[in-house]
Amino acid sequence: MTPDDFAAATSVSRETLERLRAYADLLVKWQARINLIGPDTVPDLWRRHMLDSAQLFPHLAHRAIHRTVDLGSGAGFPGLVLAILGAPDVHLIESDVRKAAFLREAARVSGTAVTIHATRAEAVPPLMADLITARAVAPLGKLLDLAAPHLAENGFCLFLKGRGVEDELTAAQKEWHITVERIPSLTDAASAILDLKEVRRGRAER
């Protein structure tokens, strides 16, 4: 997928595409020094990472979101992409200091206002986010442990999950009540977006 293909698939403006290009170019440069993404995915950056992240953005429409938290941001997927697309008050949590440094520079070159927390999610004071996102961070149960302290009362989560999603859901629902909507991934038929609401500790009702 080329940047123009990405633009056609997402209907982003030319200005937004240029900001994403600046981010992508920086990522490729830094990738030579630190492992930000899987090396074999670099040639497919715009589909595997940019589009995979951007597919969350339409699910923000018509929902009251004032603050967004991205757990384990890594190279900025999906949090920084969502910030560039227009998600509000985005907080990127990344404990790896080198990756946090990359995020600061990527935010600068793309002209994106974000707050970066270079520490573990458990060490960040509750952020009371309306939306929490994550991609390739931890199994769902652990992810909910990390997310819950930062989730506002009526907040929701959008988690990008791979082919083990059903097993993760089964395990998580032994300890968590969650209302789940599974949304097919645009980039991988075996993956899904989990849209989770009414998150609270306690076995889910079936």
Which descriptors apply to this entry?
single chain; 206 residues; alpha/beta; Rossmann fold; seven-stranded mixed sheet
Structure description:
The relative contact order is 0.13. The chain has a 7-stranded mixed sheet with strand order 3-2-1-4-5-7-6. The mean pLDDT is 95. The protein has a single domain, classed as Rossmann fold. The chain is globular, with a radius of gyration of 16 Å. With 206 residues, the chain is an alpha/beta fold. The longest helix has 18 residues.
Give the helix/strand layout.
Blueprint: H1 3-10, H2 14-31, H3 45-54, E1 68-71, H4 79-85, E2 90-93, H5 97-109, E3 115-117, E4 129-135, H6 140-147, E5 151-161, H7 165-172, E6 176-184, E7 192-201
Total domains, how many? Answer: 1
Poorly predicted runs of 5 or more residues: none
- Whole-number mean pLDDT: 95
Please give the CATH class: Alpha Beta
Strand order of the largest sheet: 3-2-1-4-5-7-6
Helix content: 25-40%
Give me the CATH superfamily.
Vaccinia Virus protein VP39
Cα-atom Rg, whole angstroms?
Answer: 16 Å
Series of H and E elements:
HHHEHEHEEHEHEE
Q: Helix tally?
A: 7
**What percent of residues are in strands?**
15-25%
Structural class: alpha/beta
Task: Specify the CATH architecture.
Answer: 3-Layer(aba) Sandwich
CATH fold field value: Rossmann fold
Major sheet? 7 strands, mixed
Distance between the termini: 40 Å
Dominant shape: globular
For the secondary structure, the number of strands is: 7
